[in-house]
Write a structure and sequence with these properties.
This protein has about 140 residues and is mainly beta. About 10% of the residues lie in helices and about 30% in strands. The protein has two helices and nine strands, in the order ββαββββαβββ. It is globular. The two termini are about 15 Å apart.
């Protein structure tokens, strides 16, 4: 049996690191209309298997004080954003059975009553092998 060394060349949309750093691509930040100072969160369903959604918990206007998961540009400008939350990053690493870092893709935007616009985080590829046999 032959296995691919690099099963996919596409980078993830949201990257979670063990040190608590969370990187959000410009593609995702534009879909959620994220700006500097916005606060993001992850919502989880009670269903089995659990689904995880990235959403805007609070907009930057009218926020007082310091908040976890506050978006900041990664390079001083642009839409590639960085967030810090050790608790959130550790949770997602545990969900995906990873230790140092995990790159996740997002699905199509959905509207969820309690939280509004959200993007589903696709965790399934990390629970199964990524190799697909083209002959079957």
């Amino acid at each position: 049996m032959v296995h691919e060394m690099i099963p996919t060349t596409r980078h993830g949309d949201v990257t979670f690191h063990a040190d608590g750093r969370i990187d959000i691509t410009a593609h995702v930040s534009r879909q959620l209309k994220l700006e500097r100072g916005d606060v993001v969160g992850i919502a989880t369903t009670d269903d089995t298997p659990r689904e995880h959604y990235l959403y805007v918990a609070r907009r930057h206007t009218g926020i007082l004080g310091r908040h976890a998961c506050t978006c900041k540009p990664a390079k001083g400008h642009g839409h590639y954003l960085r967030v810090h939350s050790k608790r959130l990053a550790t949770h997602m690493l545990d969900v995906c059975h990873a230790t140092e870092r995990i790159e996740l893709y997002v699905g199509e935007a959905v509207h969820i009553g309690q939280i509004g616009l959200a993007l589903p985080l696709i965790t399934a590829p990390y629970q199964q092998p990524l190799f697909i046999d083209p002959e079957h």
